[in-house]
Design brief:
By secondary structure, the chain is α+β, with helices and mostly antiparallel strands. It contains five helices and three strands; from the N terminus they run βββααααα. A hairpin with a 2-residue loop joins β2 and β3. The chain is globular.
Length: 107
Amino acid sequence: MEKELISTQMNVNNTLINIMRVKDIDYISLTDLARYKNPLTPGDVIIKWMSNKSSFDFYCLWEELSNPNFKLSESREFKIDSATQSFTMSPSRWIKETNAIGFISKI
């Protein structure tokens, strides 16, 4: 039996950030956080953050430690590319290519 989706919000510096729980895992809206930096195009902020080598190393390691179905070989290819200036990553691409569970994309 699938557990129900629970949604709530928190106020951070007068900005409402959506939080949802799916199957006992809490997800914070990166889009809402990114809107604080760039209200018009928050997706650009997320892509820039996900394309940063340090950020990439963090969420890659998180998946390796937390996700038994993570496609490590695909992430290693991305890891090589992440050292270049032309590297870009988005949540939907990361999920699709590596079977990631740390992100949810509504696109």
